[in-house]
UniProtKB/TrEMBL annotation, chain A:
Pfam families: PqqD. It comes from the Bacteria. This is PqqD family protein. InterPro entries: PQQD, PqqD_sf.
TrEMBL record, chain B:
GO terms for molecular function: ATP binding; metal ion binding. Keywords: ATP-binding, Nucleotide-binding. This is ATP-grasp domain-containing protein. SUPFAM superfamilies: Glutathione synthetase ATP-binding domain-like. Residues 131-309 form the ATP-grasp domain. Transmembrane segments: none annotated. The keyword RNA-binding does not apply. It comes from Mariniphaga sediminis. Gene3D superfamilies: 3.40.50.20, ATP-grasp fold, B domain.
Length: 87, 348
């Protein structure tokens, strides 16, 4: 999974997709998550970091992560070549 | 080196809620590094805002609607030319283009240059011919049917599901969700723009547009893709943003390359969720949002004037991505004298 190259993410969480013209505002949690994804971290690594930094259990994190990930795909911010891949 | 002084006549100064491209076109040319422009504004109505905008036009002339007859319009242009010595004339309305294209040679002989599509180019992209156009040039277009009477609605229902888009030959597009709405839209549009009224299959997706300029030899001199961010109830862009969309540019280059399009154009496209592009309209002139292209780095109005004057123009490739325009309305306080002058004398 990777962030589409046309997508620009600013430090304050403003996301602009220059291919579609869409823009979004991320909250601090979303921004932290997307930064980790854009660094190419795997799901397990991201989960580990999040569970230690926030008051969240594994199951809740995974549920929220997949929901967020689906949104990113829906808005063409992220592409996933293999539907089973969460690297 | 000093700037070249030119006298430029422009129509479309109606910066209203359905704006013409005249004012942004003039803004673009005024920013030219090579031209020092004397602007002759040509208006149809005495309340076109461009008449009253300070520092926009040097002279203003009222001209007759093309519906009064081509000869009347061209004779008026010739009269204005006697006074103002027009170098380049840029018409900006679909409805007037035919008269100017037909009289291109007559104007050129008098020293008035234009840079317009040929009659064939103009006619083959007309809305009621779009399916053949798509087939000929290998472009995906929505299916459509030309309605000459209300009796054809049943035929339309056999072909398309609701909703459908009901469109006039030149302007207006109304989405209709049932037979009754199609009837209403047909009556409204046919009364204003005549027949046929075009019914298009509704394509769901994002509306995206390209402003482009063809040199008449198949080269794309400029092209900037944009997505409307704010659309008025008349379907006009009130805000937009430039896109990094190579597919849209490829499609534009393909249309211009195949048709050898001459002049400004706007491609209206629908991008579906599946990433397919449907060409819904080709406007045969510069659109009202052209100043976004200027702001993004492609001075398309200046390039069009250069082409009209027979100057060499290198294709512009780069533009800034993510540049936006936001339109606004603004109340100008004007003196009665200007209004009286244009109303009584038909010129200022």
């Amino acid at each position: 999974m990777e962030i589409v190259k046309e997508v620009k993410i600013s430090e304050n969480g403003f996301v602009f997709n220059s291919k579609t013209g869409d823009s979004f505002n991320l909250n601090p949690t979303g921004l932290a998550l997307i930064k980790l994804i854009s660094e190419g971290k795997e799901l397990d690594e991201i989960k580990k970091e999040f569970v230690s930094a926030y008051e969240v259990d594994d199951l809740t994190f995974e549920k929220d992560f997949y929901e967020f990930f689906t949104l990113l795909k829906h808005h063409q911010i992220m592409v996933q070549s293999d539907p089973l891949e969460f690297k | 080196m000093g700037k070249q002084r030119i006298r430029l006549a422009v129509t479309g100064l109606n910066n209203t809620d359905s704006p013409g491209p005249g004012v942004p076109f003039i803004r673009g040319v005024k920013e030219s590094d090579i031209f020092d422009v004397h602007i002759i504004g040509l208006v149809y109505e005495n309340l076109e805002p461009g008449i009253y905008m300070e520092g926009l036009c040097d002279r203003i002339f009222q001209i007759p609607y093309p519906s009064s007859g081509s000869d009347e319009l061209i004779e008026r242009i010739e009269y204005i030319h006697q006074q103002e010595k027009i170098d380049v004339l840029v018409p900006n309305f679909d409805a007037e283009l035919f008269s100017f294209m037909k009289n291109e040679e007559r104007l050129r002989k008098q020293g008035i240059q234009t840079f317009l599509p040929t009659l064939t180019q103009f006619q083959e992209r007309e809305k009621h011919r779009l399916p053949e156009y798509g087939k000929k040039y290998g472009i995906r277009v929505p299916a459509s049917l030309n309605l000459g009477s209300l009796g054809q609605i049943t035929e339309m229902e056999d072909k398309f599901d609701y909703p459908v888009m009901v469109k006039g030959q030149f302007y207006d597009a109304i989405q209709a969700g049932n037979k009754e709405q199609v009837k209403q839209a047909f009556m409204k549009i046919s009364a204003k723009w005549g027949l046929p009224v075009i019914v298009q299959e509704f394509v769901s997706g994002t509306e995206v547009n390209v402003v482009a300029l063809g040199d008449g030899k198949g080269n794309t001199v400029g092209a900037v893709p944009m997505r409307k961010q704010y659309i008025t109830d008349k379907g006009k862009a009130w805000g937009g943003i430039t896109l990094a969309d190579e597919k849209m540019l490829e499609l534009t280059r393909s249309v211009i390359g195949q048709t050898k399009w001459r002049g400004g154009m706007e491609l209206e496209l629908i991008k579906t969720r599946a990433g397919e592009y449907y060409l819904v309209e080709i406007n045969p002139r510069i659109p009202a949002w052209v100043y976004l292209a200027v702001g993004a780095g492609q001075n398309i109005p200046e390039a069009l004037v250069k082409l009209a004057l027979g100057m060499e123009v290198k294709p512009m490739q780069a533009y800034k991505i993510g540049k936006m325009f936001v339109r606004y309305s603004y109340d100008m306080i004007v003196d009665l004298e200007k209004f009286a002058a244009i109303s009584m004398n038909k010129e200022i």
